[in-house]
């Protein structure tokens, strides 16, 4: 099916949408993105994603070409035009396309930001990995040190996914100074003695929108949450492990570097969190 996508103010068939070769997203990875999931044709936590987008733009001194109301309208128009029931909407804003390649930022008055959005169909609620669990390997975290900004510099996370696939695993957890930062495209957690442990927010990791919702729901369900770092060895000895992100919700992690976590099966805490997250998302999606 030919998707209808959004590019700089226009809705176009995907094969007619064009971006300049001078676009700084293309030349310099000078851009930010968001992925908002869609279930039942509605957006999950649109407000959270749009607020984080504004923060990413502000941290990079990049102009936002649309208001938040316009952004919601574009998301909804794309859902309608593409009959999207379940999946996600990818949004990217870059520092635009100046007349030539240059390291210096272009003047935002003459070079407006570029904006692109498109839909992706994906099975979210009944994703097979939710009932099977995923296997992860550990790799060094070689990314830059502003991982709190959701930039399009995704080469290292892509390499991480390739290293995982080569090792027969599904994903990689990145490690810095002996401690897990996060997954290549998700936040990482372990469960020990009923306690949910996850690294605290800083420039070292992305402040996941799903992380915020899941930790809030865990606390509301009287679960204990401890925000601190952990090592791969501690994770291998944990009762459970899991990851969260907009497009996975909660996926149990059943193996780390070839070693089973707990009994090697999907854990009850991860399952329960996934269930209450989906239940709330279905209720609150807009
Ligand atoms: N950490 C990284 C590095 C990510 O790329 C992502 C999502 O893409 C996340 C965490 C999870 O964030 P969210 O829950 O907002 O999708």
Please characterize this protein's 3D structure.
- It is a single chain.
- With 286 residues, this protein is α+β, with helices and mostly antiparallel strands.
- Helices cover 29% and strands 29% of the residues.
- The protein has 8 helices and 15 strands.
- The strands form 2 sheets. Strands 7, 8, 9, 10, 11, 12, 13, 14 and 15 form a 9-stranded mixed beta sheet that branches. The chain has a 6-stranded antiparallel beta sheet with strand order 2-1-6-5-3-4.
- Helix 5 links the parallel strand 7 and strand 8 (171-176).
- Helix 6 (209-220) crosses helix 8.
- The chain is globular, with a radius of gyration of 19 Å.
- The two termini are 25 Å apart.
**SSE pattern:** EEHEEHHEEHEHEEEEHEHEEEH
**End-to-end distance:** 25 Å
Helix percent band: 25-40%
* Fraction of residues in β-strands: 25-35%
Compute the CA-based radius of gyration: 19 Å
What is the number of strand segments?
15
Estimate the global geometry from the Cα principal axes. Answer: globular
Largest sheet: 9 strands, mixed
Mean pLDDT: 98
- List low-pLDDT spans: none
Q: Treating each run of at least 4 consecutive H or I residues as one helix, how many helices?
A: 8
What is shown here, in short?
Helices cover 29% and strands 29% of the residues. It contains eight helices and 15 strands.
SSE topology sketch:
Layout: E1 4-7, E2 10-13, H1 24-28, E3 31-39, E4 42-43, H2 46-59, H3 68-81, E5 87-94, E6 114-121, H4 128-132, E7 134-140, H5 155-166, E8 171-176, E9 179-183, E10 187-192, E11 195-198, H6 209-220, E12 224-227, H7 232-236, E13 240-245, E14 249-256, E15 259-260, H8 268-284
Parallel strand pairs: 7-8, 7-14, 11-12
Antiparallel strand pairs: 1-2, 1-6, 3-4, 3-5, 5-6, 8-9, 10-11, 10-13, 13-14, 14-15
Helix pairs in contact: 6-8
The structure holds pyridoxal-5'-phosphate.
Pyridoxal-5'-phosphate is lined by residues 182, 185-187, 206, 208-211, 244-246.
